[in-house]
Amino acid sequence: MGLPVNAPSEALASLSSSVVRDLSTTARKISLPSGAKWAVISYRLLPGATAVESQFAKFVVNAYNDTDAATKLAMDGAFVAVCQGDDVVISAPSGDPIYRIDVVAEQAVGAEKTLLSVSAGV
């Protein structure tokens, strides 16, 4: 019998929640100044809204500054994609917490109504 092991995303923490309504092609920065042990990013089309074809959100973690975030969000392979209706769970090692998450929509949204939420354990 070994010692119990908890995944970092199950570590005890205080909840911090951020909401981005109607995500657009303008990048949004979510700051977690005390550092997060884990985060759950959810991207949803709101009920009754009409989806934009091939729409998804992109995010990067711990960019050094706005320029670094913009560069990474523009390069395939440097960001993580989240399709509408999906959730992404990320966790951080104890010595390198999550301080910043930058998000942007892949394409112009128009009348689409979306909600991107970030729940983080700080």
Features:
122 residues, mainly beta, Jelly Rolls, four-stranded antiparallel sheet, globular
Give the structure's gist in a few sentences.
The protein is mainly β. The protein contains one helix and eight strands; from the N terminus they run E-E-E-E-H-E-E-E-E.
**Poorly predicted regions:** none
CATH architecture: Sandwich
Derived from helix and strand composition plus strand pairing, the structural class reads: mainly beta
The residue fraction in helices comes out at under 10%
Radius of gyration: 15 Å
* CATH C-level: Mainly Beta
The tally of domains stands at: 1
The number of strands is: 8
How would you sum up the global shape? globular
Instruction: Give me the number of helical elements.
Output: 1
Strand-residue proportion: over 45%
The largest pleated sheet is described as:
4 strands, antiparallel
CATH T-level topology: Jelly Rolls
Mean pLDDT across all residues, rounded? 89
Span from first to last CA?
31 Å
Q: How do the strands of the widest beta sheet line up side by side? A: 1-8-3-6
CATH superfamily: Cucumovirus coat protein, subunit A
Strand and helix order: EEEEHEEEE
